[in-house]
């Protein structure tokens, strides 16, 4: 299956409603689903929706727009122009996958999914993508590195997000990252590329940045039956 990500701009206060709208897929017989929602996240004025699909972007968009309320919902909640169809709008919202790492893992493990939305300085998206595509920061503990199941950089121009799956406890993960990144040279590079008030070469500054830019996960809304 292909992993596809959509990054939608949202009118303030409507983020959770849009996320739930995107998580409503048509009910199909077991084994016939071509789209499976992986995760949906919100941030102020932004929704990130990630799905695995056998039909690529077109298949995902077809499943999402099959619901009769989607077009009206996108117009009301996202400010979608009336000249665009829901399908055209969602296709334009696609985020390109620029870097991806994944490894198999036992089904018994509890995997946590997280996403970080980077506040990119205008025109710095491409440089940030290249920096993030380099992978795990030097000095990352073996325990944390081995807990990483997958990591993907999705982007469109200056909209850049990292989505990752890991078995690590979130607090332990942040403790390790906040010790490593500021001292590795990455903190100084991020200072130049990101529009942040914090100093990312310090533990406290990086913690504040990471916590503030972490996106909020939205639970599923269930399937609906086609009329």
From TrEMBL:
Residues 112-218 form the SchA/CurD-like domain. It comes from the Bacteria. This is SchA/CurD domain-containing protein. It holds the Pfam family SchA_CurD. InterPro entries: SchA_CurD-like. It comes from Streptomyces sparsogenes DSM 40356.
